[in-house]
Amino acid sequence: MSEQYEYVPHRLLRRRVRDIASGVEGELMAVINENVSDTLTEHWTELAYIRDASGREFTTAATDIEPVDDQPQTAAGRRDPRSA
Question: Which of 8, 20, 23, 80 is the Cys-Cys partner for 31 at CB 3.0 to 4.6 Å?
Answer without folding.
Answer: 8
